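DM from R.C. (forwarded with permission)

"hey, sorry to bug you on a friday — could you get me a structure for this? deadline for the figure draft is monday and I only need the backbone to look sensible"
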Amino acid sequence: MKLSTRAIYGLRALIDLGRTCEENEAGLVSLQSIAARQDISVSYLEQLMALLKKDGLVESSRGVQGGYRLSRPAGDISVGDVLRALEGGLEAVKCPGIGQGDTACIKKGEDDGAETAGCHGSSSCTARYVWKRINDSISSAVDSLTLGDLIADSAPADIEAPAPATDSKAGNR
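My reply, with the result:
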């Protein structure tokens, strides 16, 4: 599975939005400020925020003092929520036989011979269990992380990196 730039930039923007609101106790954050910090174009951010707003993850207000904010606490928004809003589904493999039993296989109509939608071999395909486990693992991973976790783990850019460790052998000479 490969995530698009929409997912990558959208997640970065929401982490920035959540952190900025948290640090500055800001009510609303402008797209221009997020765009400047994250080096993402404002027009692209507008598209991303429209998708996130449609799924109820962000709220907006227009006007001079307008901007965006998370619609609920960052700890209540999973990474899975964000990625699904931006990408649609997160399945690595879209197998019609997963969770469908044998009903997903293509069946020829008795009267007209037309095929119904599905996977021709799903009724006998044991690989579908592999696809299901992969898909379930992805969902579990992204649903177990929240924006709050990512905000807490992310360090602002202006914090200095820790000093490199000293070589213990050099000090013993």
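R.C.: lifesaver. The two ends are 52 Å apart (CA to CA).
me: no worries. Helices lie at 5-24, 31-38, 42-54, 79-87, 128-144, 147-153, 168-171.
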